[in-house]
Amino acid sequence: MSETIISVKDLFKIYRMGDLEVHALRGVSLDINKGEYVAIMGASGSGKSTLMNILGCLDRPTKGDYFLDGVNVNTYNKNQLAEFRGKKIGFIFQSYNLLARTTALENVELPLLYDRSVSGKDRKERAMEALKSVGLAERAQSVPNQLSGGMQQRVAIARSLVNNPVVIMADEPTGNLDTKTSYEIMEIFQKLNEKGSTIVIVTHEADIAQFALTNVVFRDGKIIANSAVKTRKDAVEELKNLPILEDDVFTI
Ligand SMILES: Nc1ncnc2c1ncn2[C@@H]1O[C@H](COP(=O)(O)OP(=O)(O)O)[C@@H](O)[C@H]1O
Ligand SMILES: [Mg+2]
Prior knowledge:
The structure is a single chain. This protein has helices at about 50-55, 80-90, 105-115, 120-135, 150-160, 180-195, 205-210, 230-240; strands at about 5-15, 20-35, 35-40, 65-70, 70, 90, 165-170, 200, 215-220, 220-230. Helix content is about 35%, strand content about 25%. A hairpin with a 2-residue loop joins strand 1 (about 5-15) and strand 2 (about 20-35). The protein has a single domain (about 35-60, about 75-240), classed as P-loop containing nucleotide triphosphate hydrolases (Rossmann fold, 3-Layer(aba) Sandwich), CATH 3.40.50. The chain has about 250 residues and is α/β, with parallel strands linked by helices. The strands form 2 sheets. It has a 6-stranded mixed sheet with strand order 6-7-8-3-9-10, sandwiched between helices. The chain has a 4-stranded antiparallel sheet with strand order 2-1-4-5, covered by helices on one side. The structure holds adenosine-5'-diphosphate and magnesium ion.
């Protein structure tokens, strides 16, 4: 039996701005199992980030349930949610979100700072290990503006890994990067997945999505396709059959 890490049931999200209502999610249900590698695709404005922010426990749905690692996160208050999030999720942003005047190593140590069971020495060792796994051990003492965009994103990936989360999530992780660097980042995700990490990424680029094994397509706040596939070759083939309109996906 495969273990379900993420289960969302009939999620709705309505943003209210004065009299205006934006229905960003309109009944989204999705299960993601341990070891899966899912790409969420769809045009700008289709609700991808809204879903991702809910999955990442950065926001709550207007209606519907979200189970993460067996827990209904709706039952948690703000502080409980923040703590649970820190333990369970590694989140990677398009803009890296690194602390500017802080070394790569210290940035990667951050998620462990709140865990009192981890000593300072262990924290450094684990951060170094994570930096090594993204090929940046030798840049541990560099601050973000001494690193290229791709390197900064690799630091962010190392930071997302350091506390062994049950799932790694990334919203448009290659959105600020050129094609070659994007592929290098996607290779890192692929390797992590091959070693057992569960990964969910958002992208609007088909050539980025083909690195994933499952493609979920959004349109107007709903999932219009969900193709779980078993091998990487199948994933590339399957992508060709998905009902993606030209406006849904732009290639770089
Ligand atoms: N904080 C917000 N307040 C109001 N509307 C929002 C907010 N965030 C997103 N939206 C709207 O919700 C819809 C879905 O947006 P989003 O989830 O960001 O889509 P995507 O990530 O696919 O581009 C869009 O119409 C967007 O304008
Ligand atoms: Mg978005």
